Write the structure tokens for this entry.
Amino acid sequence: MSEISEKMRSAVVESREWYMAAYAPEGVPTSDHLKLRTVKISLALDSIPEQHVILETLFISLDPYLRSRMTGREDGLYSPQYNLNEVVSAFGVGRVLRSRDSNYGEGDIVISPFIPVAEYFVLPSQALIRKIDADAGIPLPEYISTLGIPGFAAWVGIQVVAEPIKPGSNVFISAAAGAVGMYAGQLAKLKGCRVVGSTGSDEKVRLIKEEFGYDDAFNYHTETDYDAALSKYFPNGIDVYLDNVGGEMLEAVLNHVNQHAKIPLCGMISGYNKVWTEREGVRNLLNLIGKDVKMQGFMVGSYLDRFGDFAKEMESHLKERKINSKLKIYNGIDKFLESLRSLFTSSNIGKVVIQVK
Amino acid sequence: MSEISEKMRSAVVESREWYMAAYAPEGVPTSDHLKLRTVKISLALDSIPEQHVILETLFISLDPYLRSRMTGREDGLYSPQYNLNEVVSAFGVGRVLRSRDSNYGEGDIVISPFIPVAEYFVLPSQALIRKIDADAGIPLPEYISTLGIPGFAAWVGIQVVAEPIKPGSNVFISAAAGAVGMYAGQLAKLKGCRVVGSTGSDEKVRLIKEEFGYDDAFNYHTETDYDAALSKYFPNGIDVYLDNVGGEMLEAVLNHVNQHAKIPLCGMISGYNKVWTEREGVRNLLNLIGKDVKMQGFMVGSYLDRFGDFAKEMESHLKERKINSKLKIYNGIDKFLESLRSLFTSSNIGKVVIQVK
């Protein structure tokens, strides 16, 4: 795998790629907004500028924040919008086919937050953030899952924003079977906390208890009185709430927080498909005062100075098999739209990934 | 003033006191809820138990949080409710008339968070938190204003919750002519910030600029498009928002926060007279994530370990005349209801106090 054939070295290959045809201000994006097209990419070394590489995509990370780059407006995450008619990009794993940067050789496996959702492409080498040792014994998709955005987001929430989390804390995690939730719950358990999660199906309730070690969990589609559910699962109140959904669940949590509770805000998926004025308002923020509660939003990109600490801890957990990962792998670049939409329908378990090659 | 007359030593005096006749779940409390009655208090030393004192009230501090003790339900501040038919209490200054605690002598001026809203009363001496040097040159009401709850709340918000505030920060303060606002704005100016406030009348706009040194201010009754107002007054965004009002203004602020902004939540007076489900919901909390914003509620009672640092700094500012105080003094215990109601009508400027004696 570390070398490409002589024939490929000057080939022109067909590459399928997804581009933003129209912004989707509301609702889940459809084929009206995201379209697949085929372009031709020359693999000849002299076809690319200095400090560029030609990559082929191996894995693409599907994360809910991508939705916020498709609205055509500021939506609260302030992510830069994809340009119309340009290929969309995401966190991913690629293989270097040709390189005009001496730091990267043919066959290198690399990570970038700017992997185009395409089969082949040319990228400035400064967009690559890490070269992977493919012989380290860690499956490649783990680099965009346990060791990627969701693992890092879980770690920042639990270990940094929660200051770090204290053993014995009563911890609630929403979207608990999602990519961030599965890691956050396991990290909190490793820190000696009692952890309860909410998720969207009975199957996922069972899974997060059995495979991710949650002490308890509930299905928010069947236990629809969130206030009653939280009374039941948190008789001693909530010390830490890692919020992935916002809206009504956040409001319910605020009626159950203990003094000095911490609420790391990781995502608010309940609102991503609505303009902000149509989102559910949280009416009981006064509780933050009465209980001395800290609520803090975070973008993982703002904590890159801690990435080394995170990677060291998580790689150690991985090697000691203390962290389980559940991946939902879609095969083929053509599955991008389907896999993106699946993030918003409670249908997935764990980390959603596209295996391109 | 330091001794009471021989005749008084065994007198029985009449004392007017306010008691909670009925809870007021919504709206501003009226004479249906708070009533004045006259009781008799013996000033004879042997009429009180050991470790008790007989006080006469000098000044009572009127603070919006008192409202939350009159609802008969949990409202988010979680303050203990006044008992029905019992006298209400507040932060205040009193004079010791008789004492069965060797730490307190007749004539001592004392501070307590549990001063009954009454002319005379018997109190356990452990409810007293501080003895004042009446010759220190600081007017007595300042001990419940600059050096009391509002000064301390402003200091905790600016110096602790804002971590502390950084010079050059763009600072917004709501209810800026209120007791907390006037101190918070001045403290932020002393720290080298640019400070803008919102308040409820043109007179108060002028006052906070001229007397409290705010760089700018606006009247939220006339500039009712808060979003437009904040665009105008904060062309470079908001770094710190000390929130005293909550609701619609908080929501508007969240559309103008800069990255890593801090939002100390001190109070949410816009909601105090409503049950929480009727309060205005904040729909754009997602902005906290996109801009890495910390929003943190605080009760001053949770920061008493910092009171010494606060008092030292504020007394120094007071002596150097770097902090101005504006007090609205109501005369006579019979003004309690009127002065309480004034907190919710935009009619007051600065700290509201009752001078009882």
Notes: Residues 266 and 298 of chain B are 6 Å apart (CA to CA).
